[in-house]
């Protein structure tokens, strides 16, 4: 096992009955900030353009201020960037991940102590059917 | 929004390079404890028998002691139950969830404060294409 393997592998947060944010939306926001483009962010995450737009629209609708502003077409070819709210949400998701990781460390150690030693699979484990 | 909507909607924990435990495996262990049967637990979770067995085998192999013991066939029709380790893992996952939920409460409040008021969707949100 990697010495500092992160325990929180996937965390989806329910912000309201209508909106959850998980690693996919968080990475999309970060990729938009880094690439300046919804299309490029989608490509980086191996997400279709339609899917990337649909997630952006879902988030923009759910918040009081949009998270992503974009100019489609035009001489710039349609850049996109995060608003102040978008940056808050992206950073907030990562802070939540960090807090969750820190909070569960003790319980995770206890669970990991129950694992079989690496490289010595259990005798008699059922592999067939 | 429900007044006490849980924020942690989905939490998958990476215990080792080879084993993660998320809500599916946790619910499967709980359902085996409650129904006394892997098949019945799978049905309750709308999971195929094969899938339920495969998850049980994966967990049994990963831990030093199996989490689930089962007697296939025989007069009892093949009951299954959690071992002491199985109960520790099932309870441990739920404690981790509780700790994560408590740890993120403050950040979640901040993120929720950015949401649009319920029932008043943003003007000009993009719905087409």
Describe this structure as you would to a colleague.
2 copies of one chain form a homodimer. By secondary structure, chain A is mostly helical. Chain A has 4 helices and 4 strands, in the order ββαααββα. Chain A has helices at residues 23-35, 38-44, 49-62, 84-112, and strands at residues 8-14, 20-21, 68-70, 80-82. A two-stranded antiparallel ribbon of chain A has the order 1-2. Chain A is elongated and about 55 Å long. Residues 124-129 of chain A have low confidence and may be disordered. At the A-B interface, strand 1, strand 2, helix 3 and helix 4 of A face strand 1, strand 2, helix 3 and helix 4 of B.
Write the layout of secondary structure elements.
2 copies of one chain form a homodimer.
Chain A: E1 8-14, E2 20-21, H1 23-35, H2 38-44, H3 49-62, E3 68-70, E4 80-82, H4 84-112
For the structure shown, list the relevant keywords.
129 residues, two-stranded antiparallel sheet, homodimer, 4 helices, mainly alpha, Arc Repressor Mutant, subunit A
């Amino acid at each position: 096992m990697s010495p500092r393997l992160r325990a929180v592998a996937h965390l989806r947060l329910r912000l309201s009955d209508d909106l959850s944010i998980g690693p996919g939306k968080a990475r999309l926001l970060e990729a938009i900030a880094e690439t300046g483009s919804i299309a490029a962010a989608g490509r980086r995450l191996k997400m279709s353009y339609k899917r990337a737009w649909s997630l952006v629209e879902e988030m923009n609708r759910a918040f009081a201020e949009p998270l992503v502003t974009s100019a489609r077409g035009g001489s710039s070819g349609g850049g996109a960037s995060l608003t102040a709210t978008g940056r808050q949400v992206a950073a907030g998701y990562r802070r939540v991940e960090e807090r969750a990781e820190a909070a569960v460390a003790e319980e995770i150690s206890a669970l990991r102590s129950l694992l079989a030693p690496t490289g010595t699979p259990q005798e008699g484990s059922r592999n067939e059917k």
